[in-house]
Amino acid sequence: MTKQSLTWPRVLAVAVIIASLWPAVVAAHPVTGRDAVFVRSVTGPAIAPFMYLGAKHMVTGYDHIMFLIGVIFFLYRPRDVVAYVSLFTIGHSLTLLVGVLGGVHANSHLVDAIIGLSVVYKGFENIGGFEHLLGFRPNSRVAVLVFGLCHGFGLATKLQELKLPANGLLTNLFSFNIGVEIGQVLALGAVLIGLAYWRSRDGFERQAVTLNAALMTGGFILLGNQLVGYVVNR
């Protein structure tokens, strides 16, 4: 972890203040418009379209991307990146399939609130907050797997809202999941290239604190917005 972690109380305070004053309404990214119309009208297997929808959902899913940025931010060895991303993949693939095929439902606002919390968690962990607050750092791999399960339920709730037709459901769901993984690889590749360049520049250690504070801020905004949505729509 970065040496700048000693500044975590100030960073946390700034993140909370910015989040509480943010005027924009941030919502989760549901499947809407023509995509939703298409999904509801499907009458059989549609492999390519569902792969496209899965990839699009991941690439445009700022909450998933923010979490992945936090996960790999201080990972320098390729095998570590592969290990952590694999845990995240296993988690979200499992709950996506169980949620849709098994009919396991969860309130979408609460699930997305937990996803927001996952972003806050990673940013806080990256600046060394747990060491200073609790005296130890929770197991990062376990945390990524657990939050991966939550992200998968987030994906599942979006598809459950569309009431996918039973005909071709298994094929379309697996196609969607494959698309999600393709989108994840594309997004991850772009993030890794950006991080590699950034790490080669002066001031990365100092700027890293600011970036992780921004991640925390985004997570707080998503968390607060979804909790409000839960209360309003009860």
By secondary-structure content and strand pairing, the structural class works out as: mainly alpha
Give the count of helical stretches. Answer: 10
DSSP strand content: under 5%
Query: Could you tell me the radius of gyration in angstroms?
Result: 18 Å
In whole angstroms, the N-to-C terminal distance is: 41 Å
Average pLDDT over all residues: 84
Q: Flag low-confidence runs.
A: 1-6, 17-27
Helix content: over 70%
H and E string: HHHHHHHHHH
Q: What is the domain tally? A: 1
How would you sum up the major sheet? none
Shape: globular
Count of DSSP strands? 0
List keywords for this structure.
10 helices; globular; mainly alpha; 234 residues; disordered N terminus; 0% strand
Tell me about this structure:
- The chain has 234 residues and is an all-alpha fold.
- It has one domain.
- The protein is built from ten helices and no strands.
- The radius of gyration is 18 Å and the shape is globular.
- The N terminus is likely disordered.
Question: What is the element layout, followed by pairings?
Answer:
Blueprint: H1 8-21, H2 33-41, H3 47-59, H4 62-72, H5 78-101, H6 108-126, H7 129-134, H8 140-160, H9 169-199, H10 204-232
